[in-house]
């Protein structure tokens, strides 16, 4: 594929540690061959639950004889996985219409086999034939999961865009009554529909679970926990680093995946806590496995096959079963080994946990991923905890499951208990860091640099409206498949849906703002600048100590800056903060842009503005309060420390997040530095290259803004 690029380079190179989106401002434009593939890829996800939706896709599936394909069975390393997948197909593949869960071992093994066949397919043609075959014959959830992970990790698919998860399967994101209303509207002939941009469009209001069934105070922040952008972000965090994927072939260990796993969850908790403070909810509750769980959850979601997502009552009694005791055992082993400072492998080899770099070893151990040093004694703590807490319904048949919201990465963050579980897991991270020495003055100080002040615009948040395309939740009339009509594997024809159905949600947003950092440098140099947002007061209005509060600071921005000798003023606009992405383009608009690019009517832009690995820009600020809520900004300017592998080496940062490259990060500081360790306050407050600035966040109505 040939592309040409337009380069737009600023003076600042940057990277956010909350999400690690490549920060290059370069833009490329796709050519016709790329757009042809992009179109075909998009159509695989349309009307997911109707295998006969598109007759040409049906022809692709039926004309591809999987078991006779020399492209699969005579090509290494595809062959062994193709044999395994075909064996599953013949003797017990998860049926279509059943609920897929990556936490169910049989489901996971089948999904891995499909992923491997897709990942190792020798070229695009083979990849697409297998994908079309799987769309027709493989369980819908399993198909989407395996295909998404394969597209994410295949180097030759960098730059391809998948539909947003909430458009592929609205059932995991949109409340049952909205989807039910949409289906009724379709059955009644879309009475009263409006034509928008040449397409009949129906828009229906959608709300969060708290308005329908109020179970506890936690639902005050359901606008945050059930935000479709937030839940999509977490889903993609998993598809980037699946707990079952690893080894040298994929290179995930080069990305400090263990440390990243712990830090990402710590940052999610910190951001969640800021939202709790904005709603007077205070600390994330601590629970015990042996007493009733106070926080219930009614998800108000329903699977495509009609089963409801299991609900959990307030003061839920955990079933005392084998999985609960496994979780308890694994937790105790982790606590013990952290305090011990080492662990012993089955062959007698000792692994050190006393160095700062050992946090990566610990993270792998906790996630129990393939890059972990030990798999027998330390296993899936988070997975078993989610299963135990989810109150999932036990199935009759072995392949049937009815998982809770906690057991899907795209819906787990909706449940308040998710944050309670990860508060326990992140406590092991803090326990480990507690054994490291505090940062010394020399480790915090940047010689010759003094931050003189920080000025921040007025910070204002509000609720706006966003329309979600939920057309995939509606069955449409398929075009009949006529054997022999579509021979071979030609171009797929797409007839646009007769109607687009949207759910209008209300979600948190903020007014763009700017901050300026004024500093003095005695000589020119290259600096790493980190900006954190944290609470000023606790839930009771009391003053925090820094050590009590350090876990609650959320990394807002992170960049590398060239300093000139003398006075420097660094200006940053929230629109350009690193690690954040804008809202995803809807399927309809994306498809229209692809086709316009294909016909030459316009150029199709490739960049990282909607990268899957980014955190929603809308959610960078907590809601605050109508009369204003005090927070504090912390800025630290540190000497730049170059990474061992040059950033962006081995991948194109215009097209890819660089997962598995070992070149995602701009420096070698610990994630969360300098708040990651216990703080010596006399030292911390004395360095001149850091600065605390009080800020106030106001929550306004749209009308007021």
UniProtKB/TrEMBL annotation:
Signal sequence segment: 1-18
Domain spans labelled Hemocyanin C-terminal: 438-699
Domain called Hemocyanin N-terminal: residue spans: 34-158
Gene Ontology cellular-component annotations: extracellular space
Source superkingdom: Eukaryota
Hemocyanin middle domain: residues covered: 164-429
Protein name as annotated: Hexamerin A
